[in-house]
Amino acid sequence: MHRFCFALQVNPLSLRRFWMAAFSVFAVFLFASGGRVFAQHPETAATTTGNWQFGFFAAGGFPPNYQINEGTATSSSGQSESLLAPEKLYFWNAGFLGGHMLSGYHGRGLLRRRGELMLEIIPFWLAHYPRQDLVAHASLNNTIVSSGYFGPINMYGASVTPLLYRWNFQRNPGSRTLPWAQVGSGLLWTNHKFPTTGDTSVINFTPQLGFGLNTRVRSHQTLDFGLKVIHISNAGLGDNDPGINYSLQFAAGYSWWK
């Protein structure tokens, strides 16, 4: 039986349109900002951390309320209902990041910020399916279907996120903490087609949002914490594109600034 991926019972096409719209707005923002974003302002660019950031990080997470479609159940009256089975899936990854402050300060108060262009390289990426029994339930005729146990399954890969823009909300150059928000998109390669639901693809795209906090622990060194919301989709490269509507990934790392 073919298995199809489903998450939160939300129309995947609607979510893909949302991501496309979000990144269209992001591209327009960068274009409209033009020289203001990419021009350095020496009088405001220098900080106690620096304008260049280099670091490493490790992250882990999961897709909340992740479900797959195990087929269709039909009642005696002819009504049909999808058989949705919860599936456990966990992500682990580790990599390196680099960044460069592109602008001086803009805005006032809590919205005082600086733009930073980032690059993330993840040489270690793991998707782990623990051993589990997929049990689907249809409420129309109280049908319960089990497709049997499967797993554990490990899928390895590597990822790069070359399009990553971060807003650093820093009220003054001497702040010990540096909250940030970011948006970006990257590529993911896996050693097997991912997800393991039908004829998918070894190449996926990873549009994402993120929020976090850098805390200075030494001169020009910070301890970094973040939360990423990542969508995974092959955008039609495979015959089947179930995707992962969204996953939550928590990250911790360390950075040096110059």
Secondary structure elements and pairings:
Elements: E1 4-7, H1 12-33, H2 35-38, H3 42-45, E2 52-62, E3 66-74, E4 80-86, E5 90-101, E6 114-129, E7 132-138, E8 143-150, E9 153-168, E10 177-194, E11 201-205, E12 208-218, E13 221-232, E14 244-257
Antiparallel strand pairs: 1-3, 2-5, 2-14, 3-4, 5-6, 6-9, 7-8, 9-10, 10-11, 10-12, 12-13, 13-14
Explain this structure.
With 258 residues, the chain is mostly beta strands. It has a single domain, classed as Porin (Beta Barrel), CATH 2.40.160.20. 12% of the residues lie in helices and 58% in strands. The chain is built from 3 helices and 14 strands. The strands form 3 sheets. An 8-stranded antiparallel beta barrel has the order 2-5-6-9-10-12-13-14. Strands 1-3-4 form a 3-stranded antiparallel β-sheet, with no helix packed on it. A two-stranded antiparallel ribbon has the order 7-8. The longest helix has 22 residues. The chain is elongated and about 70 Å long. 31% of the residues are buried. The N terminus is likely disordered.
Number of helices: 3
User: What low-confidence regions span 5 or more consecutive residues with pLDDT below 50?
Assistant: 1-13, 27-47
Strand content: over 45%
Number of strands: 14
Output the structural class. Answer: mainly beta
Q: What is the general shape?
A: elongated
Q: Residue-averaged pLDDT, rounded?
A: 81
CATH class: Mainly Beta
Rg from alpha-carbon coordinates: 21 Å
Q: What is the CATH fold-level name?
A: Porin
Strand order of the largest sheet: 2-5-6-9-10-12-13-14
Domain count, please report it: 1
Distance between the termini: 55 Å
Largest sheet: 8 strands, antiparallel, barrel
Helix content: 10-25%
